[in-house]
Specification:
The protein contains four helices and 18 strands. The protein is of the alpha+beta class. The protein folds into two domains: 119 residues, 2,3-Dihydroxybiphenyl 1,2-Dioxygenase, domain 1; 117 residues, Roll (2,3-Dihydroxybiphenyl 1,2-Dioxygenase, domain 1). This is VOC family protein.
């Protein structure tokens, strides 16, 4: 299986203040099996945990925020790239920022933490194994199904991600005074992987929001509440016959879930 194209989503990662509590929450809510990562058949020296979907394939990772890091709990996404160093330089030249310079993680790959010109954080990565990531799966249970960009300047964001990562707009849905919900597709794919929308006054910071697929949205809502999370929006029906919610986990990270309409 070939490597992912430049700009395709390859990984999702939860940075949290309490790894054990977050693991307990997401195992109940998302149905993941979560266990410490291994390198060369041995437990990883750092406490990095792999989120495994019901199909047995990895869906993402989980780790505690490093001590002293000035960031709240959050989900971040990784975009696959052909060359991490040149991409980081291009992002900075386009008005973005390099939060963590390119560096290697033996056995995993080379990556960097960047921000787009509107201040939205994301990783770029070139994996060491020459194989295709399975983290994103539009209709696959337990995998990220939708990637949504909340941005203060959707036109500028589209130009940035289009030029550097191959994103194109695939139609839009008007939302009245809230602007347009513009669907995003990668040039290598036949259908949208997500969308972008203008940042609203109720949304304190621009960000990528990730929706993970669950079997039943009502069961998911009940689990979020029972495990100490909070529902922000939904359940809400969206085009395509699906229902979604946006939630905040007990440590404060924003996360979305999606399921088919019954």
């Amino acid at each position: 299986m070939s490597r992912n194209r430049q700009g395709e989503w390859v990984w999702y990662e939860l940075l949290t203040s309490d790894a054990d509590a977050a693991q307990a929450f997401y195992e109940k809510v998302a149905g993941w099996t979560i266990a410490r990562a291994e390198l060369n058949g041995e437990p990883s020296p750092m406490d990095y945990r792999i989120l495994t979907a019901p199909d047995g394939r990895p869906a993402g990772g989980l780790m505690k925020i490093p001590e002293g890091a000035p960031m709240p709990p959050a989900w971040l996404g990784y975009l696959g790239v052909d060359d991490v160093d040149s991409t980081a330089a291009a992002v900075e030249q386009a008005g973005g920022a390099i939060y963590m310079p390119p560096h290697d993680l033996p056995g995993v790959g080379r990556f960097a933490l960047l921000a787009d010109p509107q201040g939205v954080s994301f990783y770029v990565m070139r994996g060491e194994p020459d194989e295709r990531s399975t983290a994103y799966g539009r209709y696959e249970l337990g995998h990220c199904s939708w990637n949504e960009l909340i941005t203060p300047d959707d036109a500028a964001a589209l130009a940035f991600y289009g030029r550097l990562f191959g994103f194109v707009e695939e139609g839009a849905m008007p939302m009245g005074a809230m602007g347009e919900y513009s669907f995003l597709r990668h040039t290598s794919q036949s259908e949208p992987f997500g969308a972008m929308m203008p940042q609203q006054p109720s949304q304190p910071v621009p960000a990528w929001l990730f929706y993970f697929r669950v079997p039943d949205i009502d069961v998911c809502v009940a689990a979020v509440k029972a495990e100490g999370g909070r529902i922000v929006t939904g359940p809400m029906e969206v085009p395509g016959g699906e229902r979604v919610i946006m939630a905040i986990d007990p440590q404060g990270a924003v996360v979305g879930f999606v399921a088919p309409k019954p």
